[in-house]
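Workshop exercise sheet. Pairs work together: one partner reads the sequence aloud, the other fills in the structure field after running the prediction. Swap roles for the next sheet.
Pair: D.N. / O.F.
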Amino acid sequence: MKPNGDGTEAIGDCPLCGKGNHLYVKMLNGLWICQHCGKSGNLYSFIEMLLPSFQKSFSGTPEILLSKNRHLQPETLRSAGIGYNPQTGEYIIPAYKPDGKLQTIYTCKLINGKLSKPFCLKGFPTYLYGLEKLNADKVYLCEGIWDMLAMRELGLCAIAVPGANTFKTEWRKYFTGKSVYIVYDNDEAGRNGIKKVVGLLRNVAFEIKHIKWPAGKPSGYDVRDLYIQNGTDALGVLRCYLFDVKIEQADTKQAKNFKDSIHAILFSITQDKNLSSDERNQKCGEAVREWLQTVGTFYHTPDNDFTSAMFFNSTLKVLFLIQNDNFLSWLSDTLRVNRASKLFSFILKDIENEALSGRAKEINVSLFWAKKDGKIYLSCGQNKIVRISCNAIETVDNGTDGILFTPFTCLREWSCTAPVDPFSTLHLFRNLSTISPHARTLLKLWFISCPTDPQHKPVLVIIGPVGSGKTCIIRNILHLFGML
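Structure field:
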């Protein structure tokens, strides 16, 4: 893009329609419009529009050079959404909100083999790296994106501040109830930054540990240096350098109880006298949505309507239908907000919209049992699964391996403590009665092949007089296969 005569605007090609010299961008506020296709927007939408092309330009030489310079795998860099601007030679580093929306952009540049420190693009706020992947109870808080990516190559959940002294008070909510391991650099700024974060998180985190670098490590030494020197053994070495921060037991209980944490956030919003009633309700809805994204995952079925909106609570290991009374009761109790209140309706609307957005995951919910990658999964109550493979039979949490059952499509909790006849204990067919002496044996043989594709199963014919239970067993069979 090139500035116009007085420097108030920049003119260039529109990346949407491709028309040359028809995209006008205001230099002062970032507002833009294409005089050919008519599309327009602000600075955020402009960067979001360009980001895919930057990410495409990252492949090839820019990716190879950055990978070599940072000692990080190319796929690790790509997973962070890093792009490259071929016109300026700058690397483009996006930072996202927990819901996956773009929040800010950092840029840096390789000059004579040395990478400059990333700085925030003008017009964007300073923000954390990696919040869109904050999905674990234990999180490593790093200083800078490159340390964060090194931690991720070790299989850890990691978030990064852009600088040692940049942690903001409003970021505390993302770490509520979590075990936080602060691994800043070995320098004065890093040590001061650790003290700041410890002070801010002491009353909200479940557990805090911070790094104490041993004597002899050079100034500026960081966890990426540790990773470069030790490879996959770096994690074991790192854990030797972590020391506990004492947290009072009362604070620990409060932090662990996520009900109290979100209640405190809502209380602070409702006490803000500078906001109108609707503004407070809207901010409460946004706060609850962001908080839910830290304790679970939103889903919807391919139907993508309000009846298909779901939320998986990773603590309870339960997949809720959002419109179901169980979820509404849990949410009301957790937030301490009356279900009949206007505030609750604002919150619920925000949650439903998030579950149906493009950011939520689309799934086909499993019914009673499922199969995947050579394993069989049998529901066992609303939050457990029995996973059966050729190597083991084990009980795992609902949601393991991406297999999810709702409370209404799972078998009641069961356990196998001795050899039993499932046809006499399985509640779906417990009352089955047959006239033919070999009918039950045939039915057993037919169900032994249950994990196979229903289209390749032998034909099963059920006959009998009125009231003999034909309809019941057929409905149960279809239900078991998820066809009813």
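Discussion prompt: The CA atoms of residues 22 and 35 lie 5 Å apart. What would you look at next?
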